[in-house]
Every structure is written in structure tokens, then in C-alpha cells.
Give the backbone structure.
Amino acid sequence: MTETRAKVQVVPEEWQELIDARVTVRRGGVSDPNGKCVVYWMQRAQRGVDNHAVDLAVKLANGLSLPLVVYFAGISNFPHANLRHYVFLNQGLRDVEADLAERNISFVMRRAPHESHERFFADAGAAMVVGDENPMREPERWRKHVASVLKVPFLTVDTDVVVPSKLVEKAQYGAYTIRPRLYRLLPEYLHPYENLKAAVAWKRPKGFLADSVHEDMTRDWKDLDRSVEPVEAWVGGTHAAMKRLKLFTGRMLKDYGSQRNHPEVDGTSALSPYLHYGHIGPITIALAVDAALKKDPSLQEARDGYFNELIAWRELAVNFVKYTPNYDTADCAENWAKQTIAEHARDEREHVYTLQQLEHAETYDELWNAGQLQMVHYGWMHNYVRMYWAKKILEWTPDVATAVKYAMHLNDKYFLDGRDPNGYAGIAWSMLGKFDRAWFERPIFGKIRYMSGASTGKKFDSKRYIRQMRDLADGVRGTGSLFPAD
Ligand SMILES: Cc1cc2nc3c(=O)[nH]c(=O)nc-3n(C[C@H](O)[C@H](O)[C@H](O)COP(=O)(O)OP(=O)(O)OC[C@H]3O[C@@H](n4cnc5c(N)ncnc54)[C@H](O)[C@@H]3O)c2cc1C
């Protein structure tokens, strides 16, 4: 190892086996022989355990006999993020710090205004840098920028999907095309993480700039939108996510098939906010579900249904955002959908609401209003209601471009799991027929699948759901345990 320390190629023979499909070499070259540590710039995968990027960084650091420092940049202007999102993220960083410490790895958070990546890499003396992957436009731009300014190797690791996203090399038509491809690769990629420990501890240089994750990271950020309050019921972080996963696999999974389309009961995993922040990875979840199945073979159907959401639909959304440049506008619709929408552009809209009326749940439709209240006051909405919610916005706005704009705005502003590939894919599915097929012709919707309030409301106890969400908005706890932190 000491020999390689002086001049390590990014892909020298001894590291060749580390560069698998999960890893992208963003910048090649040699590691800095005078480097003082390996840095993992953590952005998407905000967890200290079950993280392939940490595992790779540990291997590289141990190979170079250097310490590993994990760095998180607390920027104050993440697109569409507000106080609700930052509080959840901030809670998660505490678990990151604690979990990394168990692995002999140091964690440094630097928050705005001194969160410059370049400065951190220089201050820490990065011999090489590891990152994670995020298919969204802006974070991908950051990675490209970092690759262009770094003088040392930069590798990114696709750790927030089960199957590395680059293995599905083009945009997919639907769940039916991506599912078999993903499932075929599960035996290769659905494995426990190594969770290796770093061999060398980092000694933080005197005066090294670092912010405490135990304080409010948003303090003195003047421009931050603080109008959206944190939701007490949700506690961010890997530890809360693991607790919920245990509850889900231990007690709730058996009823997932029958309960998952019942918004009035706590019947789904409610892990989407944790997945969004990378507090938990999909492999950890999938392995826990498989472990439950091993103990109880009667869970097979529930496991298959859950995998369909967690793996097929979620990774279809990643694929969508990765290969569709206009994933967040109405332009991402297929041609048949564009045509049918155009044909119905002049259809009369019986009700047209402003963004403000929608935001304040001021429509005639009690079920829709209940969903909107869940979004605003709980930061999450049940999937079944999300579909109905988005479709109604299409019906109640002057044109499809406005409808998509309003839906994305509200989705990303209020949901803890917002600003995620799943949100863009979910809105495109509901409003633009993406990944769906053409249905029967209807006013406004054309051939886009329609959901009527009357039939949707009969599929579950919608009266109870409406009552629960009113109670929630009034500060009274709803019936049923809809609160993950309970
Ligand atoms: C209009 C609309 C907007 C949406 N916005 C978002 C969003 O902003 N963020 C978000 O994470 N999800 C979004 N979804 C997808 C889905 O509603 C949520 O992921 C799900 O409700 C989260 O609850 P859960 O974790 O209990 O899901 P579970 O049923 O327990 O499923 C487990 C996981 O599978 C994934 N999953 C479940 N359903 C879907 C789906 N339809 N598409 C893709 N992945 C899925 C999620 O990661 C989820 O956490 C949206 C769906 C629609 C129709």
C-alpha cells in the first residue's frame, strides 16, 4: 500500500474491482500524493450506514492509509426548499454524524455562507473525492462543476437505487418495460452493504471550520422561506427511518396488499421522506422486507406488491428524470397525450381555481380539500389521494401547462418527500398520461385517465379521511395512527 500512496491512478489495477456499475469516474488522474485525507462529499445519500459511497470511500482511504472525512454542504438556497425541509434534513445530519463516528469516520458540515466545496476540498487536503448520484438537473450540474474544478480524482456512486441507474441505458415506456430488467438484476445488486470501518482516524486541524449539526443550521439565513412550518410528527434521520421500517416489516407488511389503497388508515410504509433525503436506502428496505418474507412465506404477495412500488415504480421515476430533460414541464408528455390535451384545450372548465384557492383548500370538493390539508399540515399525502389531487388540478385550471406548474409548486413546497423524481413522475402520470395508456375520450382530459370524485370516494372510507384531515388542520389528532413518529 505504501508504494501506491505516492501515485495512485483512479483505476489502477488494485482498485479495478471497486469500479463497478454503481461507480462513475467523473474525473480521472492520480490521487494527490500530498493529500491528507479522502473526502466523501455527501449530497443525496444522507446516511452514515448502508451507503455504497461511504464503503467505497473507506476502501480508498484505507488503501491509501489516509483518514476519511465526510463533508456536507449546508446550502441555504436549495431549489424550492423551505424551513420544513431543512428541519428534517438537519435532524438527519445528527444521525449521519453519530453513525459515521461508529465507523471511525469524521463528519463535517459547513453551512452557508461558507459552504464552498472547493474551499473545503482545499482546506481538508483531499487526495481524492467520492460523491453520490442525484439524477435531478441542479444536483447533476453541481457534480459536473465539481468534476471540472477538481484537480484530484472524483468518483460518484449510485447508492440510492437498487439497480445502478446507468444499467437501464435509455428512457423507459412504463413500469412494464423497466420491471423485468430491474428484477433480472436483483440477484446481482440486492445485497447487504459492507459497512466497513476506516482504519485511520482524522485529526481535525486546529481552527478547521466546521458547523455543529446540533444547532439550527438555518439560523441567520435571511432569505429562507420560513412560511412552511416543520411537521412535528415527522422526525428526520436514519434512526427514525429504521424504527419505522421495523414497525412496517414486523406488523404492517402483512396487510400492505389490502390496506395500501386506504388513505384513512396507516397502511403504507411512509418511508418516502426518508428515501428522498437518503436517510435510508432502498436496498436496506428491500432486504428487510425479504427477511420478513423468509420468516413468514405468507408475505409473498405483500412483498411483491411492495417491491413493485419501491423498486419498479421508484426506479422508473429515476430513469424518467435521468433521461427526460423537461421532466418538470408539460412538454414531457408523449405525443398521443399532447395531441389529446391540445384537442381539449378549449373545453369549458366548470370550476377554475387560483393557486391561492387551491393552496388554501378552498374548492367545492371535500375529498380534494382533505388531501390538500394533509399536504399542508402533514407534509405528506397518501398515494391514492395524490393521484386524485393532481387530476383535479388539471380539471380546474385554464390549461395543462398551468395545471402542471401549480401541482409541482404545491408538491415541492409542502411535501417532505417533494423535489424528488417520484413527484415529477407522479405528476406526469396523473396529468400527462406518462407511463399510462390512452383511455376513453372525456371533456378536458381527452384520453388521459380520469378519476371521478364519486367513485374515488367509494373505494375507501373517504368520510373518515375527510374528518381526520379536518381534525389535523384544526390541531386535533385524527383517528387512526397516521403519524409515523407515534
Ligand atoms: C401526483 C403525485 C405526486 C407524487 N409526489 C411524490 C413526491 O413528491 N415524492 C415521492 O416520494 N413520491 C411521490 N409520489 C409517489 C407516491 O405517492 C409516494 O411515493 C408514496 O405515497 C409514498 O408513501 P409510502 O412511502 O408510504 O409508500 P409505500 O406504498 O410504502 O411505497 C414504498 C416506496 O415506494 C415508492 N413508491 C410508492 N408509490 C410510488 C409511485 N407511485 N411512484 C414512484 N414511487 C413510488 C416510494 O419511494 C415509497 O416510499 C407522487 C405520486 C403522485 C400520483
Q: What stands out?
A: The two ends are 50 Å apart (CA to CA). Confidence is low (pLDDT under 50) at residues 1-7. The pocket of flavin-adenine dinucleotide is lined by residues 260, 268-272, 275-276, 309-310, 313-314, 317, 383, 386-387, 390, 411, 415, 417-418, 420, 422-423, 425-427, 430 (CB under 6 Å).
